[in-house]
Design brief:
Number of strands: 14
Mean pLDDT: 89
Structural class: alpha+beta
Distance between the termini: 43 Å
Number of helices: 7
Strand content: 35-45%
Helix content: 10-25%
Number of domains: 2
């Protein structure tokens, strides 16, 4: 690439970023993001109802549990038992880890899973140091009104860090949401919506929404574009369309990106599901 071509590419990217910033501080984007602001508020309020109770609930669930499992590795929520069937496929450098058949000093698990007599996952421990039985994070998982509610909290402070929610219909996962919240100043919310064709996963719509206090995070944007907004809403929406092989395993997928208003702004070429992942969904 010549110097002139590099300069042209840089100029084009700067223009794209400028257009993106102008859209994100627009009233059009603000209105389109309102449903996600309300979702952040709803899930934060759910977490607040359990403040001060999570350790008590955890103790009850683990005391009454029927079995435990351990896993090693895993860079996504809950490691091996992450609710999302596709996150480790479409996000680079992520994995679920692996279940351990035996637990020894050499294996040093990263997660411990607690199951009730019905086989439901009811609690998860995240180890800081397995050899010293030091747990940094705990999560309780509650089943109510056809939904699965997960509350992740710090062992040291008892502070609720993340809240997740799964909705299933006839055994199929319909949606999976997770929020890391400091609402109203800040929140990070992710939701995956799943569609099926003939009982096979066909598309996943993945929404990533962040709501940031403009005074502390994007004051430069306010001065640049003259907005007086009290917060800065940012929504990213990707749609992943999956193809199955003859045996019913996920084999390929394509992705499309959308504005908060629903306008498609880009399509990517077809990608292969990593060969090490054999998954029927």
């Amino acid at each position: 690439m010549t110097k002139a071509e590099k300069e042209k590419l840089i100029a084009e990217r700067e223009k794209q970023w400028e257009e993106l910033f102008r859209f994100q501080v627009s009233e059009e984007n603000r209105v389109a993001c309102i449903p996600f602001v309300l979702e952040c508020q709803r899930m934060t309020e759910i977490g607040e109802t359990y403040a001060g109770q999570v350790q008590i609930i955890y103790d009850k669930l683990t005391t009454e549990s029927a079995r435990v499992e351990y896993s090693k590795g895993g860079t996504i929520h809950r490691g091996y038992y992450c609710p999302s069937p596709t996150q480790d496929i479409v996000v680079g450098r992520t994995d679920r880890g692996r279940l351990l058949k035996r637990v020894t000093a050499a294996t040093e698990p990263d997660y411990r899973y607690w199951f009730n007599a019905d086989g439901q996952l009811v609690a998860v421990d995240s180890y800081f140091d397995f050899s010293k039985d030091m747990i940094s994070l705990k999560e309780i998982i509650l089943y109510q009104d056809g939904k699965e509610l997960g509350i992740l909290f710090s062992v040291n402070s008892g502070m609720i860090i993340r809240i997740s929610e799964c909705t299933r219909r006839n055994g199929q996962l319909i949606s999976y949401s997770i929020i890391a919240s400091g609402f109203p100043a800040y929140c990070e919310y992710n939701r995956e919506d799943y569609c099926y064709t003939e009982d096979r996963l066909s598309t996943v719509d993945w929404y990533t929404f962040t709501r940031m206090d403009a005074k502390t995070f994007l004051s430069f944007s306010n001065s640049l574009y003259g907005t007086n907004e009290s917060y800065y809403p940012n929504l990213q929406h990707y749609r992943y369309t999956f193809i199955h092989d003859e045996e019913g395993y996920l084999s390929k997928y394509t992705s499309s990106r959308f504005k908060s208003t629903g306008e498609c702004i880009g399509d990517d070429s077809e990608s292969d599901v990593p060969s090490k992942i054999k998954r029927r969904v």
